[in-house]
Design brief:
Blueprint: H1 2-21, H2 26-44, H3 53-66, H4 76-84, H5 90-97, H6 101-112, H7 117-124, H8 128-146, H9 163-176
Helix pairs in contact: 1-2, 1-3, 1-6, 1-9, 2-3, 3-7, 5-8, 6-7, 6-8
Amino acid sequence: MLADALHNMHGRRLHGFAILITLGDELAAERATGRALAAGARQATEPGQPKRIAAWLRARTLRDLSRWQRRKSIPTLVRRDVLASLGVDDVIFQALAAMSLRARAVLVASTVERFALTDIETIISSPPTATRRAVADARARYLRVAGDEPGSWPDTQGLHQQGELAKRVEAVVSRAMSADRGLG
């Protein structure tokens, strides 16, 4: 019952996070998400359970995916199609593909999901100063590749102020975490 509740509360968003940071590797995302949710359910019954479970689940997913190697057997076109269904266009894909797994996780957690710095510290297992630097570096790297393309996401200068861009990012997140993408 606890596992079902955890899955219902966090499964779709966690799966969306994993899909984005694996650049559309659905199998790796599903496996990592499933393992994180199972570990989260076990952890929740232990004393000293994680206080901020959403960040803990992402940390667990990222740790699992750190051992993952981008499979060359998945054609780029397939990856792009998976991500296009989430609203990720070619500019965004190229920018994300130019980043490391960790940097993608930082970018998605900070800019797309808008986690607080303390949660990002948990996600990447890093102290505050290093986490702030990681967020700034990930955003800078993304912008170097994405450039000033109109509508490219994320807008690191005014995400929270720009209603239209924020709506677009929310739409990407919503599609990434939609119910029709089950965890198998």
